Amino acid sequence: MASRGNFNSRLGFILASAGSAVGLGNIWKFPFEVGAGGGAAFLLIYLCFALLLCFPVMTAEIAIGRRTNSSPVGAFRKLGFPKWSGVGYLGLASGVLILSFYNVVAAWSFGYFFEMVRGNFSIGANFSDYTADLIKISIYGVLFMSATAFIVSRGVSQGIERAAKIMMPSLIILILGLIIYSLTLPDALAGIKYYLLPDFSKLTGSVVYSALGQAFFSLSLGMGALITFGSYLKKDTNIVSSAAIITVSDVSIAFLAGLMMFPIVAYLTQGDLQAISQISGEESFIFQTMPAVFESLGSTLGVIIGGLFFLLLSFAALTSTISLLEVPTAFLVDEKKIQRSKATWLVALVVFLVGIPSMLGAGSSSFFADFIRLPGMENSMSFMAVVGLVGGSTFLSLGGFLISIFTAYVWKKRNFNEEIYYENEGRLGRLLRLYVDFAIGVICPIVLGILCLVTILNNYFGISW
Ligand code: TRP
User: What percent of the chain has pLDDT over 70?
Assistant: First the structure.
């Protein structure tokens, strides 16, 4: 056991898991999903999914991990259901796929930090040249992956827990500072209105599904990342309340990221709602538009705020890439008995190679840029977008669905409940635990099952109703 490692404290576990959850998904992806999904309407659905559906699944993942002291593949076997280790392998595949493109976006963000510090604000207008600059992006990509691997190779308490303890508080301070700043910009209020007043006419089936995908992605659920982190958790920790804190922190930081971004977009568009929705709904939004905003602040302030912003983004990304790398690493350590640091660098190398087509698809290769057109899609998708859809959305919600079925009907609720029961849980804790117990067997399988089926048919086969 000692060789696997442990979190030193409950706070360390919560910070590392919240660090895994809070990432590019919150600061880069969430605002543009809100923009594309009609503002506040998307936000509402997202909140419901996160709190009602994802929170019980998170509890289940942590419980499975802690009960078995194993990473996902071994966990199902240890509980006595070797066939279910397929879910673990599905998780491994998602982890590799997600990290492969995530590292590319993280590399862009990290590179932007240096561009801002150099005062190169025109980078926003030249974003596509920047992402097509293979040498530059590869260097940033290698640096970022190496930073991740360095931390993971140091182990759970000395690497992952320590890094989270430093980076998470810094991230929160940076984000609060930037919110205060963005709220003082002219037209900030129009942005807040777009963000907080729902327009339900924008709500379509695909918006609902992207809200679900976003909730899973943002909470790092469905691939066993939290099974793995849970496996390093001490027995006397309250799982339900920890999961609740992680969920609420992640949702709050996504919410705060919106609060930081929408006033800025409104400032840029002089409060024009139509334009806010258009600009903020773009995937490349923060990379293309933010530098111009920083430029307008003047050279000194622009360098400071712009630098801090992309530093924040890189920090957020790093605590997430750590958890993504940890899952396949833990698999090699637990199942293949490979030494931790060897396993880490091996996985990092493989994932980096898998990510090369994603890197190429962002400007330098038209083959990977227009990689495939799925039957359910209007336009062709880039390699990165396909990997994101398969690994970062479909596999995760499918994984979440299977984990809820497994927990309630295979492992059985009695065992699950035994693992999440906590002596001094208090009234709220008890209520939450009873909700989790109910939701994991009823709400999660039904809602996730239906949504998975509908979107798989729709996206991959072009069948819609
Ligand atoms: N949650 C992270 C984000 O929002 C991404 C992430 C890290 C993730 N680990 C994960 C997503 C595991 C799914 C599964 O940026």
Answer: 99
Ligand 1: residues with CB < 6 A are: 20-21, 23-26, 98, 217-218, 220, 223, 225, 320, 323-324, 396
- Indicate the top mutation candidate among 17, 102, 246, 315 to test ligand 1's pocket, ranked by most ligand atoms within 8 A of CB: 102
Tell me how far apart the alpha carbons of residues 279 and 368 are, in angstroms, rounded to a whole number.
25
Give the DSSP per-residue string, 208-260.
HHHHHHHHHHHTT-SSSHHHHHHTTS-TTS-HHHHHHHHHHHHHHHHHHHHHH
pLDDT digits (tens, 9 = 90+) for 45-66: 999 999 999 999 999 999 999 9
- No. of H helices and E strands in the chain? 24, 0
Q: Coil, strand, or helix at residue 308?
A: helix
Q: Whose CA is closest to atom 7 on ligand 1?
A: 320
Sign, CA dihedral 387-395-59-84, equals: negative
Ligand 1 centroid, distance to 133 Cα (angstroms): 26
Tell me the CATH number of domain 10-460, given options 1.10.4160, 1.10.10, 1.20.1440, 2.60.120: 1.10.4160
